[in-house]
Specification:
Blueprint: E1 2-7, H1 14-30, E2 34-39, H2 74-80, H3 93-98, E3 102-105, H4 116-124, H5 133-140, H6 142-151, E4 159-163, H7 169-175, E5 180-184, E6 193-194, H8 199-209, E7 215-220, E8 224-232, E9 235-236, E10 240-243, H9 252-256, E11 264-266, H10 273-289, E12 295-303, E13 308-314, H11 324-331, H12 336-350
Parallel strand pairs: 1-2, 1-3
Antiparallel strand pairs: 4-7, 5-6, 5-7, 8-9, 8-10, 8-12, 10-11, 12-13
């Protein structure tokens, strides 16, 4: 098949997306597919041959990508594009997608996980992987997702949604409950997230998060074990436990760096059968309530009493070989390349609208 793997973009999760997309592209090429990597924002600025020939590029435009120690400098990425128009879609991106048998969405965050590119591809009649525009948009908005998932009977921490400015911070820091979790509604990769325990930490958190968005969810901080459950082809794979690093910090650095700074991932999670069943049932309920297709991954906290608390759902979770869904699929005997191909085949079979 001719497959365009879209990645990059100008989301705060750009670096993660680049690694996911190039990894998926290489895996699909290893199975004989004519897969090429295309950056959603930068497009094909350096490709001057007829577009039909792009699928024969010897390296699939993959190149090398790595998750950097810090979040991406999006201003530098924007400045680097020759086309300085306000378009968030690069040169010939939609044109090359129309020539493909399927578009694999290796995007994360804004423009990729929020339903926008899904809607554009549907209007063009181009098949793509994963969930449709509505389910993607609902899951991306943490406040909307919590309302929908809670209505399906899944337990979620007490929370409130608010929009604020810098001038509101002193009042909010003095009145919001602590400890708590503060999350920008459309964020990901632990960017725009803080877990303040004191009012001073809350004040600083509200200040630090504001550049990522002024609409946030403030929720009760549940102490316990962090679990995540991939859903694939409408069934839950094994739960995975994420153990924070020794520092206790779980942010962008701890999420993607190895060694003492990085979090540990235990797959399958060392929990009893009853707990695994509870968290898997909750993940399936979230996936179905949000109307998702093919695959997703939902995050939870299991407290000391064994109660499972829903945090959020990712519709396009990380797809590097070391990411969580590939790890859970490997437990069932599915290789990384097979998983990538199955996502394509299931998406084509089921449709996403």
């Amino acid at each position: 098949m001719k497959i365009v793997v879209l990645g990059g973009g100008i989301s705060t999760e750009r670096h993660v997306s680049l690694v996911s997309a190039t990894s998926v592209c290489k895996a699909l090429r290893s199975l004989g597919h004519r897969a090429i990597f295309v950056d959603l924002f930068l497009g094909l600025e350096d490709f001057d041959a007829p577009l039909e020939t792009a699928f024969d590029a010897p390296d699939g435009f993959c190149g090398e990508a790595a998750i950097e120690h810090e979040a991406p400098d999006l201003a530098a990425v924007i400045a680097s594009r020759r086309d300085q128009s306000p378009s968030r879609i690069g040169k010939n991106v939609l044109e090359i997608c129309r020539l493909a048998d399927c578009v694999f969405l290796g995007l994360h965050g804004a423009d990729g996980e929020d339903g926008k590119i899904q809607a554009a591809l549907e209007l063009l009649g181009v098949p793509y992987t994963g969930s449709g525009p509505l389910g993607s948009a609902m899951a991306m908005d943490k406040a909307v997702a919590k309302r929908i998932v809670a209505s399906a009977g899944v337990r979620t921490p007490a929370w409130q949604e608010l929009t604020y400015t810098e001038a509101d911070i002193p009042t909010l820091a003095g009145t919001l409950p602590v400890p708590c979790a503060v999350k920008v509604v459309g964020g990901g990769s632990s960017i725009g997230v803080a877990l303040p325990d004191t009012r001073e930490e809350l004040r600083q958190a509200l200040h630090d998060i504001l550049p990522y968005g002024n609409r946030v969810v403030v929720e009760q901080k549940i102490v316990g074990r962090e679990l995540t459950v991939p859903v694939f082809d409408d069934r839950a794979l094994c739960p995975i436990e994420i153990v924070p690093p020794e520092s206790g910090r779980f942010d962008y650095i701890s999420k993607y760096q190895s060694g003492s700074e990085g979090a540990s991932e235990l797959c399958p999670a060392p929990i009893d059968e009853a707990a695994a069943r509870r968290v898997c049932e909750a993940a399936l309920k979230a996936h179905r309530a949000l109307g998702l297709k093919v695959y997703s991954r939902s995050d939870f906290i299991m407290d000391g009493d064994g109660l499972v608390w829903y945090l959020e759902t990712n519709t396009l979770p990380g797809m590097t070989p070391a990411s969580l869904i590939p790890k859970a699929a490997a437990v069932e005997g599915m290789s990384y390349a097979q998983l990538c191909e199955q996502i394509v085949l299931l998406s084509l079979r089921k449709g996403t609208n």
